[in-house]
Amino acid sequence: MKVDIIGDVHGCLDEMKALFHKLGYEEEDGVPVHPDGRIPIFLGDITDRGPDSIGCIRYVYKIVVGKNKGRYVPGNHCNKLYRFFLGNKVQEKHGLETTTAEYRALPSKEQKEVRHHFMKLYEEAPLYLELREANAIVAHAGIKESFIGQQGKKVRTFVLYGDITGEKHEDGRPVRRDWAQAYEGSRWIVYGHTPVREPRFVNNTVNIDTGCVFGNKLTAFRLPEEEIVSVSSKQPFVEEKFRLD
């Protein structure tokens, strides 16, 4: 099994297509297909903040559901958009407002289609992926070794939001424990969620959210090669979004 795990896209459709091109994929019937049969895997947060969240929904839906040529796990932004589409009261901020503005600008027929596609993509997705052949777990914000194989509320919160303490930083960001430092498993944990300037390797974990939407780059982690491939972002660089590691 050869896979290309793609970090948080956040509405950056052009960069996602550029990354597929750099990875050696070719467009076939509107979706990227690799001549070696490699499988792309999206680790969540495909929407919000970037310039074309609706385009990303359409593209990822077609790859994963329409043509069955890839896999997807949800992130916290995906969860919030799903709750918005359910009709729940959610606060349209922290990036969601960009996606909902794009959505409301569509004709009603296209709105129904986009809503249906995203909800189907989300509902059919596993909370996290166990890739036995690749000896890896793909989980949006990571996962503790003891949680692997489990579901439930605690696991769901961890996978979507990380190891949060319940406290907040002065700027409103949640305080998170650095769970990767304690990871002792033999399987790769491939995750994103927290922007870093360079892929962050700790034990057998790697954070590949290299902050494309904040002007840095979009990154893929290839297995079994354990290789990093990135493309530069077209977005303005936002220094304060990158924590020190």
UniProtKB/TrEMBL annotation:
One of its GO terms (molecular function) is phosphatase activity. GO terms for cellular component: cytoplasm. Residues 1-196 form the Calcineurin-like phosphoesterase domain. Signal peptide: none annotated. InterPro entries: Ap4A_hydrolase, Calcineurin-like_PHP, Metallo-depent_PP-like, MPP_PrpE-like, Ser/Thr-sp_prot-phosphatase. NCBIfam families: PRK13625.1 (NF010148). This is Protein phosphatase/bis(5'-nucleosyl)-tetraphosphatase (Symmetrical). It comes from Thalassobacillus cyri.
